[in-house]
Amino acid sequence: LHSHSHSHFPNHHSSRSSCSSPQKPEEKKMPLGLCVDSLSDALVLGGCIALPMLGAAVSAKTTKRNLDWYHGLNLPSFTPPDKVFGPVWGTFYLAQGVASYLVLQQANFRLDHVQPGATPLPLALGVYGVHVGLNWLWSWLFFGQHRLQDATLTSGLLLLSAGGTAAVFGLRQGTAGGLVAMQLPWLVYATTLSYTIWKNNPDQQRVVKEQ
Q1: Please, which residues have CB within 8 angstroms of residue 209's CB and are 6 or more apart in sequence?
Q2: pTM here?
Q3: 3 state DSSP class of 8
Q4: What is the pLDDT of residues 195-208, one digit of tens each?
Q5: 158-178 as b/e, with b when 16 or more CB fall inside 10 Å?
Q6: What is the DSSP string of 88-138?
Q7: CA–CA distance, 189 with 43 (Å, rounded to integer)
Q8: How far apart are CA 186 and CA 188, in angstroms?
């Protein structure tokens, strides 16, 4: 085994990938600068998108089981209809999954890729991983555990992690940073909503709905 073998994703990227090679302006035009020129690329892209979506699927089940409880809360006047949440969050999860792929693509799928002035790739992916985890945690706390205060604090951390992810991704690949940053206004709104629900329901018991 080569000493650097664990720094790569698909093996075929051990040599420079055509995805990250200099190209003529008219070549390989794809939305958002995506380049998928092999099965391995497609699998990595699929995995990047599936990661945030996996937690979203679990969260959706938890949310659905607790909608009666949610509708029984004292909700503020600016609460959106239930049907808004799925498409909005689904769009953000898709966008951040694509963003993570763009960062990997720009680094030629090498974890040891060095980019002057940019956050090391493992650290950038670690910040993103924290952000994804907080996404999942909020739904579990709010809908699964009915812990409104903890959910609100988590939402605030989620806002910070989104900003951090957008920053570290943006230093490595501009479009990736923008794809994550697009959720910031919504997270400000969602955190405000979560805070208001918490304050409007001071006597809410932390009772988990029986499965």
Answers
A1: 65, 66, 69, 146
A2: 0.79
A3: strand
A4: 999 999 988 755 44
A5: bbebbbbbbebbbbbbebbbb
A6: HHHHHHHHHHHHHHHHHHHTTTBTT---TTS--HHHHHHHHHHHHHHHHHH
A7: 34
A8: 5
Closest CA to 34 of 119, 112, 94, 118: 94
Q: Rounded to whole angstroms, how far apart are CA atoms 45 and 129? A: 16
Distances (CA, A) of 76 to 27, 80, 193, 198: 51, 9, 8, 10
Q: Which residues pair with 110 in a beta bridge?
A: 8
What is the Cα–Cα distance from 19 to 103, expressed in whole angstroms?
12
Q: Is 160 helix (H, G, I), strand (E, B) or coil?
A: helix
Question: Which residue, 118, 104, 97, 132, is CA-closest to 10?
Answer: 104
Hunting for tokens 């490595």 — which residue is that? 172
Q: Considering only CA atoms, which of 53, 42, 2, 50 is closest in space to residue 19?
A: 42
Q: How many CA atoms lie within 13 A of 26 on its CB side?
A: 0
Residue 168 CB contacts under 8 Å (≥ 6 apart), including other chains: 118, 119, 123, 124, 127, 128
Residues linked to residue 8 through DSSP beta bridges, in sequence order: 110
Over the stretch 118-168, which tens digit does the pLDDT of each residue have? 888 999 999 999 999 999 999 999 999 999 999 999 999 999 999 999 999
